[in-house]
Amino acid sequence: MKCLVTGAAGFIGSHLTDLLLRDGHEVIALDDLSTGREANLAQARKNKAFYWIQADISDLSAYQKIPVVDWMFHVAGRADLVPSIEKPDEYFKVNVSGTYLALEYARRVGIKRFIYTASSTCYGIAEMVPTPENYPCVPRHPYGLTKYMGEQMVMHWAQVYKLPALSLRLFNVYGPRSRTTGAYGAVFGVFLKQKLAGKPFTVVGDGRQTRDFTYVTDIAEAFLAAAKSDISAEVLNVGSGGTYSINRLVELLGGEKVFLPKRPGEPDSTFADISKIRAALKWVPKVSFDQGVANMLSVIEDWQEAPLWDEASISEATKNWFKYLK
Question: How far apart are the first and last CA of the chain?
Fold first, then answer.
């Protein structure tokens, strides 16, 4: 198939691009490099079936550069919680308006499959764990809200315009190539840089909160399985099949820890009910948490240039978190 991957130079997009090329498909990679890195596509660029377009998904003119494709994987978007509180306009522009333009492109060219990257943050603080897809969505911040609004548009286009689309709600994705610069974000990037620097891990709360850490290659496999399926207008959770404490992560990484105040608006546990995707796509996660952490440690030098966070800098970076989400 001829595939379009938006956000292809990013963390998830680059792994998906590599998988599609290995599976024999042609890939048009689109990214504006605002958060993605060209280095993530070094392997893909060696493949004759790879094509590059630098463009912004929220710019209508970007879609004039794209040829007709069979499959579209809409991975591009703004991530991270705190920046979404501080700059909601940017998140609405990219995650909502950008998704609208992507859907209209897909409708215009008669796409065969449209796969949307949704976020488990739409559930807010779920009281039911594992959390099924029909659990009420109550986003707690603009990032979660804009990703959920994008998903609602995808389902609406599938219903009204019969666009063959699926939405994958991803849970706590980690793995090589995850972002190393920018705003205070995912725990893996923070901890790996702290380990490199010989500093203690900054654990929020008591560390007993758990997350459904899902390895990025399993995520890419779910996208490919979704594209190859014939189901449409469905939302599917994508998780690891387990949930793991921050204290367990520290134990696997090895090192001292210091504790930070528990933050409002954060769930005590994220844990996907993945029975629906198992049945619908015959997809199962393959990489265990222990193996995934070991894989991260094997490429820890990739975090050499990442920002080093400590108690004081994290407190400053998250002050709006406490201000608005308390």
Answer: 48
Q: Do residues 191 and 249 lie in contact, with contact meaning Cβ atoms separated by under 8 Å?
A: yes
Cβ distance 202 to 194 under 8 Å? yes
- pLDDT reported for residue 22: 98
State which amino acid sits at residue 101. L
Render pLDDT for 261-306 as a digit per residue (tens, 0 to 9): 999 989 999 999 999 999 999 999 999 999 999 999 999 999 998 9
- What is the domain partition of the chain in residue ranges? 2-173+214-238, 174-211+241-270+287-325
Could you tell me if 169 and 133 are in contact, meaning their C-beta atoms sit under 8 angstroms apart? yes
Q: How far is CA 24 from CA 18, 97, 104, 125, in A?
A: 10, 32, 27, 40
Q: Which of 143, 148, 184, 244 is catalytic?
A: 143
Cβ 250 vs Cβ 191: under 8 Å = yes
Nearest Cα neighbor of 82 from 307, 266, 208, 272 is: 266
CA dist 36 → 23, 99, 105, 113, 149 (Å): 23, 18, 22, 24, 23
- H helix runs in 121-272, sequence order: 142-160, 187-196, 216-228, 246-253
**Residue 143 annotated as catalytic:** yes
Q: Please say whether the beta carbons of 246 and 211 come within 8 A.
A: yes
259: left (phi over 0), alpha (psi -120 to 50) or beta: beta
CATH of 174-211+241-270+287-325, one of 3.90.550.10, 3.90.25.10, 3.40.50.1860, 3.40.50.2300: 3.90.25.10
The residue ranges of DSSP E strands in 206-321, in sequence order, are 210-211, 214-215, 234-238, 244-245, 257-260
Q: What CATH number has the domain spanning 2-173+214-238?
A: 3.40.50.720
**pLDDT per residue over 250-262, tens digit each?**
999 999 999 999 9
Q: Which two tokens stand for residue 180?
A: 């190393």
Report in angstroms the alpha-carbon separations of 137 from 103, 127, 167, 175, 240. 22, 11, 14, 27, 20
Name the H helices within 23-70: none
